[in-house]
Amino acid sequence: MKNPYDVKDREREELILKYLPLVKSIAFTLKRHLPPTIDVRDLIGHGIIGLIKALEKLDTQRNPESYLKIRIRGAMYDYLRSLDFGSRRIREKERRIREALKELTEELGREPTDEEIAQKLGERVEDLQHDLSKISFSYILNLDDIFTEERRSYEEVISSKKVDVEEEIVQKDLSEKLKEAIEKLDEREKLVIQLIFYEELPLKEIAGILGCSISRVSQIKGEAIEKLRKFMKDF
Asked: What is the set of domains in the chain, with CATH numbers?
């Protein structure tokens, strides 16, 4: 006679193996926007924990894969929040970078390079860029919190993936509101948002495309996401 617990455990292991590529895909996408000190294996590990917990309620979900994505990404985000993303130190560092950027722009009559900003702050360029990655991703965490309350993520809203009829109506409404919010951004902010969320490019590559410093891209991104966050929160 088969032990029902053995069957249940085996089914769970099969589901974990089935959705492991999804966990890895989410982890490597997030990794592109994070400092090099964040190990993608840690993201995968926490994503698997989120997956295992989510599997317990999978049968009750109308859109299982969407539900799993939210729970997997949520577990990874919880791990990142446990680090100093969005901490008081990072916010203070962001303020100092903004001040240095403004002062150097006035002094030089142009946008300064990351090397010039780092020199003014008295630190290495590598340390500056490390903190810029944290500052940048903290805004994504902030924006994602709003969509998580609606049991979906900003990626799903932006991509407008098909779901069941009721979900599609709600998602379409959110998507329209997000597009309306994006239209309120200036052209450079729109471009940065497009390169981040549609093209999934990291800050360094976006800086190369725009021909400016990573510090400036981080500033533009932060201002754009803060505008979107405020608009969507009011909605």
From this structure: 1-83 (1.10.1740.10), 85-235 (1.20.140.160)
